[in-house]
Input
Amino acid sequence: MTRNAALATGLVVVLVAVIGGYLLYDNVLRGDSAAPLALPSAAAVSTTPTTTTPSAAASSDAGTASADPAASATSDPGVATGAVAGDWNVAADSVAGYRVREQLANLPAESDAVGRTSDVTGSITLAGSGDAIQLTGGTLTVDTTTIASDKPQRDNRLRSEGLQTDQYPTATFTITQPVDIPAAALAGAASDLTLVGDLTLHGVTKSVSIPAQAQLVNGQIQVVGSIAFPLADYSITAPNIGGFIVSIADQGTLEFQVNFTKA
Output
């Protein structure tokens, strides 16, 4: 082969690689623009507790009820112990999934790759003592086989690589430490709390602390949370797509927004 022919062949190879890499990036790695999960706004809905005492109702009629959500929650023991304590089951419109930043070689995706599913099951238990409410236990289970992103190619690959959902069809989170529920949350105001428990993902179980927010709105307890973690902690490796190594940032994020209704 002459020098010119070799150069021409090399140029063709480079062009094919560039075009192929772009097509791979465009069809597999170009992430969507899904916003992080968040609690539904309670501004447009009633946050009146589902159970009230006669004295509280009378006070409201007289125009003397406190405008402070936290104060209204703590001033009504019937709400704390009667309407809230007990078991709560995962309700409709709950969602959980992952968020990662992918890249092909040194070319990062424009946005996060996000996969989610509404196949979330489980329950929590709340216990009351006076005006105080604690989350004393609970387990969430996510069907990882139904997690879907904006790219079917990515989802198909994760069945055998990365999350390996064929081999690990579920992920679970189990509460291991009691959590005090803020009074403001019981009155419908989004409130911070930390969920401590065991997270099982990709066949690996680790104790984690998940920053979260919760609120009680229209008879539903709504909880949103997310946690970033090193993928290596759960033995997750980047999938190999089309002969190219698709790398993922050292951290991935698990996120969820779960609604609960009284059992």
The radius of gyration is 24 Å. Residues 3-34+85-262 form a domain with the Lipocalin fold (CATH 2.40.128.110).
